[in-house]
Write a structure and sequence with these properties.
3 helices
Length: 101
Amino acid sequence: MTIDIYDIIAWIIAALLIGPLAAMIVTRKKAGFGRIKNFGIGLVGAIFGGLLFKIFNLNFGLAHISINAQDLLAGLLGALVFVFILYLVNKRRGKNTLPPQ
């Protein structure tokens, strides 16, 4: 498994797209958690998902797109797992991570 600069650039670009998407899915609000938190969630998710896809050699045949859909999917799934983990940790601590609906 090798990680090159192109992977890192793709993960950063994916983070800009995926963070707000994951936050909107979780909060059901357009703003999500806010720009900085959305980007952070997207970046962690993109890196986490990208690494998992590389480790398990997952390939859905979507890699022919410049910023490929596989990176976006990996990032979205990684971001959702990361938000879920944060939710569980904060729930255990007694904090409410989601805004009231």
